[in-house]
């Protein structure tokens, strides 16, 4: 590996950290609601975000395989800057929801462009003979740095959102940064990191992967989509991985989307939310080496079954919404997501050829967001139904009534997947 390509690995880690460790994440649910949205509107915004990713994920991945991953990564960073600018300066009032829809569209487009392209660029920067052994080490390093990034983002983001804390910190200046409105300082901070993310993207070096000239880019991109689809849908192990991963990802993400609402429900202030999020981030340091050993010692089915068990444990615990102590049952959910990301990246890259790598990784993104969008629609329908059947109930009450449906739905879907695997196994033996 040349020195110019070797630099892609730390740049890949820096890009992932800056792109995903957003300061408003620990309070995103209550931030949107405090701006004036309902639970249904917030859920709908996340569905819009997921649908945009679904629509653009595969075309952007195929285009990255054809015209170069760096160009698509830079586009993702530019979209992130615009997305955060819209979020930071969205006016409250009648146009609030419309501007937030625009923000979600831009965010989804940025996510679609980044997903797969950055990972494919980093993987193809490794010498071909060393990829199987070196990539798990890169993933381990990525998880550690992401954990550190999330730790800082969670702690500082929650602190920036806490109006009482901000007022006390700036009391000596005579200026109250929280006066008159919901604190948007976490959004402003993320706008700054989005600019840093763009600077990182501009410094990537494109690996020498065979691709057609720009004149044939569009045709080759669609061909890559077809080849990627064939690769995914003709491989039973990839199909199992996709279905199992999207099931786990969808239910955990739905809960984490409303995580700040859950913490408010059990009586925790925003700054404590950030401390809990940072605890999960620090535990990610421990997940990485354990996940690496599990990939070496256990099979795919065993690894994903263990992760699913942690998810069911966490969702079941959160359904009770025990004041204060209910925060601890969130830990299995955070740990399961870290392990899921490690396993999915490791197996997909190991089973995929370089020529369609970004495309196949984009299929992963599509699968995950299809599941997330479907789960978001169902959750919005559930909260709307509960609002109808319990007139006068507040947002916290409706949210608490919806929580027990998450472990129930996850268990039901898991049993269906298990039955499908049993049937497929019997057909293979026959």
Walkthrough of the structure:
By secondary structure, the chain is mostly helical. It has a single domain (3-206, 215-429), classed as MFS general substrate transporter like domains (Growth Hormone, Chain: A). Helices cover 78% and strands 0% of the residues. It contains 19 helices and no strands. It has helices at residues 3-6, 8-20, 28-35, 39-67, 69-88, 96-114, 117-124, 131-161, 163-169, 185-202, 217-233, 236-257, 259-265, 270-297, 300-318, 331-350, 357-389, 395-402, 405-429. Helix 8 runs antiparallel to helix 16 and helix 15 (300-318) packs antiparallel against helix 19 (405-429). The termini are far apart. The mean pLDDT is 81.
- Say which CATH homologous superfamily is assigned: MFS general substrate transporter like domains
What is the SS-derived class? mainly alpha
Please give the CATH class.
Mainly Alpha
Number of domains: 1
Mean pLDDT: 81
Main β-sheet description: none
SSE pattern, N- to C-terminal = HHHHHHHHHHHHHHHHHHH
CATH topology, by name, is Growth Hormone, Chain: A
Strand content: under 5%
Helix amount: over 70%
Radius of gyration: 21 Å
* Secondary structure: number of strands: 0
CATH architecture: Up-down Bundle
Euclidean distance between termini CA atoms: 47 Å
* Helical segment count: 19
Q: What is the multimeric organization of the chains shown?
A: single chain
**Parts with pLDDT < 50 across at least 5 consecutive residues:** none
Please tell me what the overall shape is. globular
């Amino acid at each position: 590996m040349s020195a110019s390509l070797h630099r892609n690995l730390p740049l890949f880690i820096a890009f992932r950290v800056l792109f995903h460790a957003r300061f408003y994440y620990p309070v995103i649910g209550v931030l949107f609601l405090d701006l004036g949205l309902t639970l249904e509107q917030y859920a709908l915004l996340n569905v819009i975000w997921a649908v945009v990713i679904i629509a653009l994920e595969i075309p952007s991945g195929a285009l990255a395989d054809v015209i170069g991953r760096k160009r698509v990564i830079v586009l993702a960073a530019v979209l992130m800057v615009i997305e955060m600018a819209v979020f930071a300066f969205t006016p409250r009032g009648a146009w609030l929801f419309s501007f937030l829809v625009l923000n979600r569209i831009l965010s989804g487009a940025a996510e679609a462009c980044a997903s797969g392209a950055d990972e494919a660029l980093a993987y193809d920067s490794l010498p071909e003979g060393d990829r199987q052994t070196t990539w798990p080490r890169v993933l381990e390093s990525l998880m550690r740095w992401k954990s550190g990034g999330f730790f800082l983002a969670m702690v500082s983001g929650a602190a920036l959102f806490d109006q009482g804390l901000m007022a006390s910190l700036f009391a000596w200046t005579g200026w109250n940064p929280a006066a008159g409105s919901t604190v948007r300082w976490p959004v402003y901070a993320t706008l700054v990191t989005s600019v840093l993310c763009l600077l990182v993207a501009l410094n990537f070096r494109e690996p020498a992967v065979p691709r057609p000239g720009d004149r044939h880019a569009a045709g080759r991109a669609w061909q890559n989509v077809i080849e990627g689809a064939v690769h995914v849908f003709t491989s039973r192990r990839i199909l199992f991985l996709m279905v199992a991963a999207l099931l786990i990802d969808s239910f955990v993400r739905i809960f984490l989307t409303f995580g700040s609402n859950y913490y408010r429900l059990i009586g925790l202030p925003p700054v404590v939310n950030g401390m809990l999020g940072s605890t999960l981030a620090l535990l990610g340091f421990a997940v990485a080496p354990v996940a690496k050993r599990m990939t070496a010692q256990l099979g795919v089915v065993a690894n994903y079954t263990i992760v699913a068990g942690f998810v069911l444990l966490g969702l079941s615990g959160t359904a009770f919404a025990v004041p204060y102590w209910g925060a601890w049952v969130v830990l299995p959910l955070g740990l399961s997501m870290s392990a899921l990301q490690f396993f999915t990246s490791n197996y997909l890259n190991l089973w995929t050829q370089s020529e369609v790598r970004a495309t196949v990784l984009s299929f992963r993104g599509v699968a995950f967001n299809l599941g997330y969008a479907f789960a978001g629609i169902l959750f919005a329908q559930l909260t709307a139904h509960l609002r109808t059947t319990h007139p006068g109930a507040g947002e916290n009450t409706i949210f608490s009534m919806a929580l027990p449906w998450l472990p129930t739905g996850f268990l039901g879907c898991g049993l269906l997947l298990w039955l499908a695997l049993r049937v497929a196994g019997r057909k293979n033996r026959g």
